[in-house]
Design a protein that fits this description.
This is Fimbrillin family protein. The chain is mainly beta and 694 residues long. It folds into four domains: 8-52 and 101-223, Immunoglobulin-like, CATH 2.60.40; 68-99 and 226-343, Immunoglobulin-like; 350-471, Immunoglobulin-like (Sandwich); 473-694, no CATH class. It is built from seven helices and 47 strands.
Length: 694
């Protein structure tokens, strides 16, 4: 008995309203909710569907981003020395449809308005907080051309009711048992023996929804099985793969739709396919062994200790070999695809981990991460680029000194310490590499491709990493950097609170002597005070308030000169490196400064140039000091009259390098598309570096 029908006299209006609920919006299976109107009002219950994209982070089995390596195995024969190497790759999502760029929600039926035919939905309902002992809805919902709905029309009953919806597809999955009463929210499933009958089951649930919702119910479907497939690895020998099998895996369990968890029984089963797949040895990495229709759809699990892969392979001589490998205690994760790639040579991992990012026109330090494992052929790996003149590399922790490493990490582009154009290394694991880019002062963007491959001779395919380095936006002979950096104050308006003292009393005497000797290079700077005896530094005080009386950088047309005068004023350019060095040597600061006085507009622009390194040594050690010479300031903070030449879709306020010395608390800012005006030096606004055309 359908207790939830409305009076038939209302039916015409209800059907008209229902037909207005346009919920399927695109042939793209991932865009149902994004491209449609799932919240459109209607007084009958209808649905908008989508797939769960939140877990799609590591790529799909058939995509260029193949996923991550979860394990490596060797298939061995009991009666021969033949082996096959296996690499298990896990990719998020289940992609077995055979449709390019589409992810399947039901085996062989990609989710589109044309052929995702139906799903089954249960409506659990409560009245005044009490669960009703029958389903409000227990129907298949289908796409009837413009709406996902059931054949029977169901109406929203009112605010004193509430609902939770549970849905699944396909509706005809073999050996799937579904809830028969509202007391159960479990699906019971036994995996069919035949791979062609195994289904990619998807489930959608909702939170509690009021009975006067009068909007379409959004259902987000997620995969609850694990797809398992076989593919060719880096190299396969000629012959025939007669069959593949998964042995000793759990095959039955219950899925709790309320909490999204499987509970599996202890029973195991074997699953096999006869393939008779011919191999020539010329297959490409990733070519399928099992077809999309032959993908195993398994239950998510930590595999039993006795679980194994079995492959029957006939070599070029016509001899059958049965090869097995244990996969016990490995994991099949729900909603993922596990691809076992077979190869006659050990599979290795060598890839770029970082994602390409566009870079700016000035001198750039671009840290990237690559991954290399110990399966790599002898000799390690090599990293090159298509532009060796402008692109060089240094591996992290391979600088001549930790102090040089610290300077690079602080953003100093160090000429002579910027590495080599061909980097060779045997380091394994996640390896950070600094990519040093020289400035691009042409009128065209620079397209850079990095190539990563084993050093060893052989037919190894290079992994590539491509990105763009912009050229400046040129206008009237002035080029402006293209990427908006962080905002900065102009600086040089600091009060007495901008004072910090470093204590070295806990350091050994030789370290205090080294610090005292190092500070001789700063003896002419009034903002630095050293306390100690006989050349030994016990305390170092840095008082930035003494830098406020800046009486230079007043040019309205020469930003490079202004930037030089600001950057070098009373040794302020040394402050950042000095503070970093004092902390690295164990200095204990008496407080944290309220703002970072080493970050100001002119310095931000100066840091986009190349620096030289001055090496100072004595009996106690060696120090490395970054030095920016005046003729190397090619990127600078524009002067008052240069700012209007910046042409790169600017908006808002930007600092110029022109100071106002009376009363010494302001400088000129430039408003994009407008004029320049005095502005408080402590205000934080935009900064863009410029350079003159060479």
């Amino acid at each position: 008995m359908k207790v939830h029908k409305k009076n038939p006299s209302w039916m015409a209006g209800g059907m008209a309203t229902m037909l207005l609920c346009t919920l399927l919006f695109s042939c793209n299976n991932e865009d149902f909710l994004e491209n449609g109107n799932p919240e459109k009002a209607c007084d009958n219950i209808c649905f908008g569907i989508s797939s769960d994209k939140s877990i799609q982070t590591r790529g799909y089995a058939d995509s260029d981003n193949e996923g991550y390596t979860a394990g490596r195995f060797v298939l061995r024969s009991d009666n021969s020395a033949d082996t096959l190497c296996v690499r298990a790759i896990v990719s998020d999502g289940i992609n077995v449809s055979g449709f390019e760029d589409e992810q399947t929600l039901t085996r062989g039926v990609p989710v589109t308005k044309d052929n995702f035919e139906k799903f089954h939905v249960l409506a659990y309902w409560s009245k005044n907080g009490t669960l009703v002992d029958q389903f409000y809805m227990d129907e298949d919902a289908a796409n009837n051309g413009s709406v996902w709905s059931t054949d029977q029309i169901y109406y929203w009953p009112g605010a004193d009711h509430s609902f939770q919806f549970y849905a699944w597809a396909p509706t005809d999955a073999d050996k799937l048992t579904t809830p028969s009463t509202p007391q159960s929210k479990e699906l019971s499933y036994t995996v069919p023996a035949n791979a062609a009958e195994q289904k990619d089951i998807v489930v959608a649930t909702t939170t509690e929804i009021r009975g006067d919702n009068n909007n379409a119910v959004p259902l987000t479907f997620k995969h609850i099985c694990t797809a398992v497939r076989f593919a060719v690895g880096s190299q396969m020998q000629p012959g025939q793969i007669k069959s593949v099998a998964l042995k000793g895996v759990k095959n039955a369990g219950t899925y709790n739709m309320a909490n999204g968890a499987w509970t599996l029984g202890d029973a195991t089963a074997d699953f096999s396919q006869t393939l008779d797949k011919e191999t020539t040895g010329n297959e490409g990495n990733g070519d399928e062994i099992t077809s999309a229709e032959g993908t195993f759809m398994m239950l998510p699990q930590i595999l039993p200790a006795d679980a194994m892969i079995k492959v029957v392979f006939t070599n070029a001589s016509g001899v059958d070999r049965t090869l097995t490998a244990s996969i016990g205690d490995t994991q099949w994760t729900m909603g993922t695809t596990v691809t076992y790639k077979l190869s006659i040579t050990p599979e290795y991992e060598l890839e770029f981990v970082s994602q390409p990012e566009v870079q700016d026109a000035h001198y750039v330090i671009y840290p990237i991460t690559i991954k290399s494992d110990d399966k790599l052929p002898a000799g390690g790996w090599t990293l090159t680029s298509n532009d060796p003149t402008n692109v060089t590399f240094v591996e992290k922790d391979k600088f001549v000194s930790n102090d040089v490493q610290a300077l690079v990490d602080a953003g100093y582009w160090l000429d002579g310490y910027n590495g080599i154009s061909t980097l060779t290394s045997t380091t394994t694991g996640d390896v950070q590499v600094y990519v040093f880019l020289k400035e691009n002062v042409t009128e065209a963007d620079r397209n850079i491709t990095l190539s990563l491959k084993p050093v060893a001779q052989g037919n190894y395919e290079a992994k590539e990493f491509s990105f763009t380095q912009y050229c400046p936006a040129w206008n009237n002979g002035i080029g402006v950097e293209r990427i908006q950096d962080k905002d900065y104050p102009w600086g040089f308006n600091w009060d007495s609170d901008m004072t910090v003292t470093y204590d070295f009393m806990s350091q050994p005497s030789w370290r205090r002597l080294l610090i005292g000797w190092y500070l001789n290079f700063f003896s002419g700077y009034t903002y630095i005070k050293v306390e100690g005896i006989i050349g030994s530094a016990r305390k170092v005080t840095i008082n930035f308030s003494k830098l406020g009386n800046l009486n230079t950088a007043t040019s309205t047309s020469d930003g490079a000169q202004n930037t030089w005068e600001i950057y070098t004023f009373n040794g302020i350019n040394e402050a950042s490196a000095l503070m970093n060095q004092l902390e690295a040597w164990g200095g204990v600061a008496d407080k944290i400064l309220p703002t970072n006085p080493t970050e100001f507009a002119a310095r931000a622009c100066a840091m986009k140039n190349k620096y030289k390194v001055k090496v100072e040594s004595n009996a106690n050690g060696t120090v490395y000091r970054p030095v920016l010479e005046q003729n190397d300031i090619v990127w600078y903070l524009p002067a008052q009259n240069e700012a209007s030449s910046m042409n790169d879709n600017l908006s808002g306020d930007y600092w110029t390098s022109t100071a106002i010395t009376n009363p010494g608390t302001t400088a000129y800012k430039y408003t994009a598309g407008g004029s320049t005006n005095p502005w408080d030096r402590n205000k934080v606004i935009h900064v863009r570096a410029v350079r003159k055309k060479p």
